[in-house]
């Protein structure tokens, strides 16, 4: 603290100027560089001068340490003229003395001793030497001789010193270790000391608030503190008169950086080299490594690290401020920096350090010529670690640098494949050319088999099936040599993926035909077998659901994969397949939770391609549950994140979702515009193309082109049957064809298709079963329709198919209307209208609004008749009646209005009595005008 420094000054004054006369006195002021030693020494000399004490000052310098008697010469310059005649003349005195140099030095020592005696006879004398550790050896010997032999009580000596190594250390220790020497050690300021210093600059309140931060950046070093404060003053003079809040917090500027450099440079060349080495490595904890890097002895490195820590530059082996590390790196010349980085990389690599730390140095300079073999391997290792840490830019930089320096063709191809795999989830378009260049080497076996698998997947997405098949053949050969290996497992997962997604290609048939029946899911594994790979599990679950329909075991397997597999470059297709399984199995709630989580994760990572894939799945979920606006929103986002060209032959999925949703909403122009966009022919030969074909058929049906629609629905069915994917989970093409036949008057054909779909759907409450019941009802006589439609509504309500439920309710309203039950028809219309509005089915909503089917009583209410009865309703009764008129159940009304079901029933009883009706269906339409759509 500053108070402690004042106490040290008082102690030195008492010793040197006020104590009992007990012979010469010696005081040593020590401390780290810039700890205030020189300032304290000057304070002592000023005090001595004020008391009439003669002062002989000298400043030792490292640059003059090799010159004999350099310090002694400075002391003689402060003496009276008649005494300066005896000052040393190195070399000349030795030549004149017939007894040689030793006798000449003795003569000098004796002359200096006599000079001190003469000076102290007249007045008290203070010898003050700054940075005595840099004094030349002859001067130190002379000082030690004179001080020991001068018995005058008028002589005092005060010196400041830092650390010293070398030949002068022994002589300095001899001088400074007299019995009555007073040692003053200046430590850096504590937080309290910093606060005291800051109070003068910032005021008490701000000093207390920021003292800890200033101390953290400087370690209590006075020079660094002054640098920070000078930077603050500089900012304030350039800024507004009234500084904004927070401007008193420490911010490293140019003056702080220069102060840090000054601290380093004052320690000498070796000290400076250590500081540069620490800046390069970023850490000083490994002294042997640092010693090898800068080629300085470990002993000296430890001393410098300790000094840098004491002076406040380092703390725990690291720089207190990044600004100091930056300025030290900038201080290195370019011709020094490159070799140091290269040496650091090699040393770290040899020690088995973190590969990313090794790469950081390699990327900072060009590799030497010729390139050393270890460099390429080090960069590849770093790329693997960077990919795992999701540091894509670093990974690409490592791979590109390794690619520039490698001379091995297979290694170069492997690097190119790794680049594709690393960047594909983020920007497939940027990697297409590189992927295409790998097709030939992958098919000819030049590319290693593990790196060939991602290339195969990329080629399939681009629709280059011949090249993908050739590459797969190479993988199959390699896998056959290592059965049960990771490569063999990867190949099996690809075969399952082909069966579920790309089954319509003769080039790929050999790989599909090799897939064997997997048997029951629940059969326990023998003790000597390992669990199935999650990659195989995910694709097997997806193929099961697509080919056989919803399978609970497959669903549970997919959920396990999602719970245990972390999303990464190598698992993205596995995670995607597991999530698709849940979507096709209509596990909408679980699929939505996982999908939203993965959308958030990929969005934060900036993985645009992965984000687009999960957005499409989210759109598919929304379409299957009938949330049409959400379908459009997610599908459009998918195409924004990844343009159509980046989707390749899988573009049918986002386009199919958009076309289907726009058609259901009645936006036929938007759907037509999407259908007018060019798509690759290969798209129609994969599962994603089925969704496009089905969506086109629905658009054609909705716009009156029944025969074209029927052609597309049939094409869907034929492909699904040929591919072994004809299950209700995939697409309900039979219902689309049945609806088309209904518009063409083909009741029997429509009924047969609906019954087939119903049989495939089974007895479970599913969206497909509900939709099949609705279509089947349209083929039946009027009296039979209501029962089938009521059953359809119940199934759809249980399964969550809201758009299909709105359509079923609309059909039910029409059926009641045809039978003359207008009140029930009106109630069903309102429920259908509410659902249609909620789903975004605008066309269905408009058609329902054109056919209100009001009863006589509702007409009377609408035209203002019997208004006295309605005016008697309380606000609570009006709200309950309005919701009941809109088709809400008593339980739903209670939940919306936060009242009990019993209260709802009581309100409705009073409403019936006041407006003179006996049942819910007779509630007039006018009641829902102000409440039904806002409650």
Automatic annotation (TrEMBL):
UniProt keywords (A-Z) are:
ATP-binding, Nucleotide-binding
**SUPFAM superfamilies assigned:** C-terminal effector domain of the bipartite response regulators, TPR-like
In this protein, which residues make up the domain named HTH luxR-type?
A: 866-931
- Matches recorded under Gene3D superfamilies: P-loop containing nucleotide triphosphate hydrolases (3.40.50.300), Tetratricopeptide repeat domain (1.25.40.10), Winged helix-like DNA-binding domain superfamily/Winged helix DNA-binding domain (1.10.10.10)
**Ranges in coiled-coil conformation:** none
Query: One Pfam family this chain carries?
Result: AAA_16
**Entry's SMART domains?**
HTH_LUXR
Output the PANTHER family linked to this UniProt entry: TESTICULAR SOLUBLE ADENYLYL CYCLASE (PTHR16305), TRANSCRIPTIONAL ACTIVATOR DOMAIN (PTHR16305:SF35)
Q: Any idea what this protein is called?
A: LuxR family transcriptional regulator
**Organism, as annotated:** Streptomyces rhizosphaericus
């Amino acid at each position: 603290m500053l108070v402690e420094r004042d106490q040290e000054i008082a102690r030195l004054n008492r010793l040197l100027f006020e104590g009992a006369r007990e012979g010469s006195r010696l005081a040593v002021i020590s401390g780290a560089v810039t700890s205030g030693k020189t300032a304290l020494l000057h304070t002592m000399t000023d005090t001595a001068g004020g008391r009439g004490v003669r002062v002989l000052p000298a400043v030792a310098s490292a640059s003059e340490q090799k010159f004999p008697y350099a310090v002694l010469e400075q002391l003689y310059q402060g003496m009276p003229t008649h005494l300066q005649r005896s000052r040393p003349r190195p070399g000349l005195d030795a030549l004149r003395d017939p007894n040689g140099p030793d006798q000449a030095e003795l003569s000098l020592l004796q002359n200096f001793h006599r000079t001190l005696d003469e000076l102290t006879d007249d007045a008290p004398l203070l010898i003050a030497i700054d940075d005595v550790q840099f004094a030349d050896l002859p001067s130190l010997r002379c000082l030690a001789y004179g001080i020991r032999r001068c018995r005058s009580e008028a002589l005092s000596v005060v010196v400041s010193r830092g650390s010293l190594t070398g030949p002068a250390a022994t002589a300095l220790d001899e001088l400074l270790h007299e019995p009555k020497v007073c040692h003053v050690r200046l430590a850096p300021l504590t937080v309290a000391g910093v606060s005291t210093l800051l109070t003068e600059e910032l005021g008490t309140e701000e000093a207390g608030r920021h003292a800890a931060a200033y101390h953290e950046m400087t370690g209590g070093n006075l020079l660094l503190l002054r640098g920070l404060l000078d930077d603050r003053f500089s900012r304030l003079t350039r800024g507004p008169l009234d500084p904004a809040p927070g401007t008193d917090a420490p911010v490293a500027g140019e003056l702080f950086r220069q102060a840090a450099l000054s601290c380093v440079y004052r320690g000498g060349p070796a000290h400076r080299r250590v500081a540069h080495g620490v800046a390069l490595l970023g850490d000083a904890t490994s002294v042997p490594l640092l010693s090898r890097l800068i080629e300085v002895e470990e002993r000296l490195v430890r001393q410098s690290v300790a000094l840098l820590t004491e002076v406040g530059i380092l703390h725990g082996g690291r720089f207190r401020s990044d600004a100091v590390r930056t300025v030290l790196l900038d201080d290195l010349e370019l011709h020094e920096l490159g070799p140091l980085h290269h040496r650091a990389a090699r040393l770290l690599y040899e020690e088995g350090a973190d590969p990313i730390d090794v790469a950081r140095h390699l990327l900072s300079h060009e590799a030497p010529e010729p390139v050393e073999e270890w460099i390429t391997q080090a960069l590849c290792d770093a790329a693997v670690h960077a990919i795992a840490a999701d540091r894509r830019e670093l990974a690409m930089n490592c791979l590109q640098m390794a690619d520039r320096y490698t001379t091995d063709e297979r290694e170069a191809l492997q690097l190119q494949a790794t680049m594709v795999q690393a960047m594909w989830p983020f920007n497939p378009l940027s990697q297409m050319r590189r992927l295409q260049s790998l097709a030939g080497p992958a098919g000819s076996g030049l590319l290693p088999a593990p790196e060939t698998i991602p290339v195969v997947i990329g080629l399939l997405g681009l629709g280059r099936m011949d090249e993908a098949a050739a590459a797969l053949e190479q993988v199959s050969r390699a896998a056959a040599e290592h059965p049960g290996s990771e490569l063999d497992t990867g190949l099996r997962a690809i075969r399952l993926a082909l069966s579920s997604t790309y089954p319509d290609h003769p080039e790929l048939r050999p790989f599909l035909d090799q897939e064997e029946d997997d048997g029951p899911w629940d059969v326990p594994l023998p003790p000597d077998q390992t669990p199935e790979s999650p990659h195989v599990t995910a694709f097997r679950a997806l193929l099961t659901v697509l080919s056989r329909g919803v399978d609970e075991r497959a669903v549970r397997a997919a959920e396990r994969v999602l719970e245990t597999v972390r999303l990464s470059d190598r698992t993205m297709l596995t995670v995607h397949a597991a999530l698709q399984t849940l979507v096709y199995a209509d596990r909408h709630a679980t699929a939505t939770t996982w999908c939203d989580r993965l959308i958030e994760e990929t969005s934060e990572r900036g993985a645009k391609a992965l984000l687009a894939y999960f957005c499409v799945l989210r759109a598919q979920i929304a379409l299957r549950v009938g949330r049409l606006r959400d379908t459009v929103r997610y599908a459009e986002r998918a195409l924004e994140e990844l343009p159509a060209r980046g989707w390749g032959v899988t573009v049918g999925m986002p386009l199919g979702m958009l076309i289907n949703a726009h058609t259901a909403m009645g936006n036929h122009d938007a759907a037509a515009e999407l259908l007018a966009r060019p798509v690759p022919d290969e798209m129609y030969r994969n599962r994603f193309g089925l969704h496009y074909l089905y969506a086109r058929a629905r658009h054609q049906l909705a716009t009156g082109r029944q025969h074209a629609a029927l052609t597309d629905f049939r094409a869907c069915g034929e492909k699904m049957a040929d591919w072994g994917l004809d299950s209700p989970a995939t697409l309900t093409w039979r219902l689309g064809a049945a609806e088309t036949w209904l518009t063409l008057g083909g009741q029997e054909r429509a009924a047969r298709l609906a019954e087939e779909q119903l049989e495939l759907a089974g007895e479970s409450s599913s969206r497909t079963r509900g939709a099949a019941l609705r279509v089947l009802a349209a083929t039946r006589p009027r009296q039979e329709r209501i029962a089938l439609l009521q059953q359809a509504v119940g199934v759809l309500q249980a399964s969550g198919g809201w758009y299909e439920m709105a359509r079923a309710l609309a059909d039910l309203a029409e059926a009641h209307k045809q039978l003359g039950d207008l009140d029930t028809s009106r109630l069903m219309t309102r429920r259908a209208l509410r659902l249609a509005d909620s789903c975004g089915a605008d066309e269905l909503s408009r058609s329902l609004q054109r056919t209100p089917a009001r009863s006589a009583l509702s007409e009377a209410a609408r035209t203002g008749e019997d208004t006295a009865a309605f005016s008697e309703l309380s606000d609570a009764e009006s709200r309950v009646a309005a919701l009941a008129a809109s088709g809400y159940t008593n339980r739903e009304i209670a939940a919306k209005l936060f009242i009990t079901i019993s209260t709802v029933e009581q309100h409705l009883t009073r409403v019936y009595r006041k407006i003179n009706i006996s049942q819910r269906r007779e509630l007039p339409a006018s009641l829902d005008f102000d409440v039904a759509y806002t409650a």
